[in-house]
Write the structure tokens for this entry.
Amino acid sequence: MAGPYAGDLTPQQAWDLVASDERALLVDVRTEAEWQQIGVPDAADAGERAAFVQWLTPAGPNPTFLDELAATGLEPGDGRPVVFLCRSGVRSVAAAQAATAAGYGPAYNVLRGFEGDVGPDGQRGHWGWRAEGLPWRQA
């Protein structure tokens, strides 16, 4: 499923795109456990244009990822911007590549994801969506 995608956006650029383009959809590809324990982007101010589709499941890669993506209302070739978000910006690259290969998009990756890489103190949360003060809520 590797291949090109439309590119990387900072969390602020991703929010600006989703908030300003009524066709854009933010797709959080983290696990259900992450959504519950860490929180989720709050897209209420963007007309609720957010979806939650796991890239990985506890059993491994999600075999129904593309089917679940289609269930959000996206259609291959419709030209709707799709912005993928994960914890640190790794799974979301793979999701953007898979979506692009399936004809969705333009598909983007959010750099540093929802909570970023581990910082010098061994903790996450120094970078990414939440650290930049973008809308989020506890699931």
In short: Helices lie at 11-20, 32-38, 65-70, 91-101. The mean pLDDT is 91.
